[in-house]
C-alpha cells in the first residue's frame, strides 16, 4: 500500500533557486551608474560614521571674530555666520540627515509590510478596512500630514521622523499589497496551504521573501524622498533644532547669509542633499530594474 506524500511548495521562478541571469555580479547588474551611486552612498555613510574623527572642529562651537571666513588652510570650506566650521557641520549634519531618513524608511517599511501581508492574507472585510484607512491617509500629502503630527506632538528630530514615517506607511502598504496579492494567488502558496501551514508561516517563509526585492527597491527610493521631506521640516523649524548640525537646518540658517553675499552654507548643504537623494534614487531605480528582470 502506497502512502501519499504531499509535494513541497513549488519554488517561484526567478527565486533564490532560479537560474541566474547573464552578467552575474553586483556591478554587472547595477551598471556603471549604479556602481557610482553605491560608491557615493557608501562615502556619505562612511563620512557620517567617522564624523567625530574627520571633523577638524566641534560643529556647534564658533567664534564671532571668525564669522564668514573664506575657505582656507584652517577652515577648508570656510565658516558660517556664527564662526562655526562648515566642513565639521556638514560631516555631523550627515549623521542626522541620513539617520533620520533611515529611521523613516525602516518604520514605514515595517508598518507597510505588515499591513500589506495582513490585508492580502485575510482579504474580505479586513482588506477593505485597511484599504479605507489607507485611502483616508492618502487624502493628506506627506509633508502636510507630517506637519500636522509634529504640530500636535511637538518639534524635534524624533517627532519629525515618526510623523514622516506615518505619512509614508500608506504608500508602502499600497505598493506591497498589490505585489503580495499577486503572490497570494500563485500555486506555491496554495500548495503550502494544502500542507496545513498557518498564515503566519506561509507569509513569513514564502510571501515575505518573494516581495523582499520590492521592499528593498521602495526603501532605496523612499530614502531620498525622506531626506527631502525631513530637510523641509528642519527648514521650517519643525525638525532638527539648532544648534544641532543638519543639512536641512543649515539651508534654513544660511538664508540671511545668502542675502548678504555669503552663499556657502546654504549652497554646500543643499548640494549634499541633492547628491545623496540622487545617489539613493539611482540605487532604487537599478534595484527595481534588477527585481523586474529576475521575473523574466
Can you walk me through this structure?
InterPro entries: BP-dependent_transpt_permease (IPR050366), MetI-like (IPR000515), MetI-like_sf (IPR035906). With 296 residues, this protein is mainly α. The protein has one domain: MetI-like (MetI-like fold). Helices cover 70% and strands 0% of the residues.
**Count of folded domains:** 1
Largest sheet: none
CATH architecture: Orthogonal Bundle
Distance between the termini: 42 Å
List the helices and strands in order. Answer: HHHHHHHHHHH
* Strand runs, count: 0
In short:
With 296 residues, the protein is mostly helical. It has 11 helices and no strands.
Overview features:
296 residues; mainly alpha; MetI-like fold; elongated; disordered C terminus; cell membrane; MetI-like_sf; BP-dependent_transpt_permease; membrane
Task: Set out the fold topology.
Blueprint: H1 26-49, H2 51-54, H3 86-122, H4 124-138, H5 142-153, H6 157-184, H7 187-194, H8 199-235, H9 247-253, H10 255-259, H11 264-293
Helix pairs in contact: 1-3, 1-11, 3-4, 3-6, 3-8, 4-6, 5-6, 6-8, 7-8, 8-9, 8-11, 9-11
